[in-house]
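User: Round two. Same drill as before: sequence, then structure, for each protein.

Assistant: Same drill it is. First protein:
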Amino acid sequence: AAATGRRVSGGAHASNETSYNWGGMEPAVKHTYICATDDWISEPCEVSIAPSSFAQGGMRKCHKCFEKVVDGSKVYSIESVAKFSMIHRDERMAKASSFSDAKMQMVAEYWAQQFNRKSPPANKVAFVVAQVLELPSRNGTQRWSSLEPLLSGEYAKFNNNAGAVLGGRTAQAFSHFTAHESANQLCICDLQGVGGSLFTDPQIHAVKGTFGDGNLGRGGIDSFLASHRCNEVCAAVGLPKVEPKPCRNGGGGMPMMMGGGGIGDGFDLGKLMQGGMGGGAGMSMGMHKLLDKMMGQMLGG
């Protein structure tokens, strides 16, 4: 997560050995999840990572990363962001978190595509592709990070994983949509990115399943619903208005959501983690069918 209002830019930059200083390069391995086979592929690369972070959130800090690409006689760099954990004290947990976050971003993209089927043309959303970056020459938690494209534009945060609403009508409607369509069994929030519709680094609160260190379960879902106020995008998508109701534990207001279908007791939302965005090409047709089947089970279809 990065500070609101910061302007960032990124992309591929033409370069050559003389015009770019490759002295800070280090060996690395990129791990990319492949949907069709439910597996990871690994490829070696060389990267140069800035020693100081340019932004940070509650759990990770962001460093600019340049990947060296050699294509025949051409040498150029791809500018990305390497996100390192600030909360894990051992390498094992940092590694598990990096792989979990990459898969979680795929689940968010799946829900984005469901939302886009119903939302107006001006209110479409998407999530960037995340990979795992391994740095073999480093020890401890610094060996593992998440690798994402460096977004271009004004970076803003729209809500967090504790129920705070910071703006963005489309972002709030999307979080509302995930809660409603899952019958309040999950909620995708902590939305941030550029343009109000291209997001990164989300958090999934889920009653079942493992969705990273920030998953607050039922409490996280209830916190979002208690603070959410419906807007015109919610109405355009066909979402019912959230009506705050007192929580049985006396912990504040909890909206009662009507409709959205039901989920059987045997359904495990953690199964949604068995997928990913592969190589920036988007979700495979096989994974679409698998997730559509899961959604059918969730919604009683």
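Second protein:
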Amino acid sequence: MPGLDETNNESYRYLRSVGNTWQYNVEDLHPKMLSRLYKRFDTFDLDSDEKMEMEEVLYWPDRMRQLVNATDEQVEKMREAVRIFFLNKGVHPVNGLTRENWVESNRVFAEAERDRERRGEPSLIAMLSNAYYDVLDDDGDGTVDVDELKTMMKAFDVPQEAAYTFFEKADTDKSGKLERQELVHLFRKFWMEPYDPQWDGVYAYKY
């Protein structure tokens, strides 16, 4: 299987375009983060063929439609955010992404997100998080509470009790409500930053 580089991966292409020569090294990755990422892949790989297809990841916004009173406009916004996010995570619209290349694709995406942040460019994690946030905020008060968070856990096939552990970690200002940036912050800490055991229980140890 050919390796990933700027010719076949959007995040490597972005990094090289801004002069960043970062290169993946599996030895830099903690074994528990490696395990976490592979478990995540297996959740997305609905037909268990060791390849993640764009249609498989688009299943998740459709699942959200079934669980909340989402409008067609909100669902299409989620679908478009998912397409952009996973394209930059390495899921090719035609060829998909193999399990073999999944971890490297995540790590180069994380580096690209850090570079976007340094350059003051929009975050793709925030784009995806905000698309889901708009749907989760069922009462329209501009925040997400525990009950609304349970919907997200159910949508992503995570035990609903994870809503409580996720909420506790994400609610950094202890307001009893999650604001947009708090959700983005926790997603970034759990999936993108170097492994830190304090985040292990965020999804009730599913990942």
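The beta strands are 51-52, 97-98.

User: Perfect.
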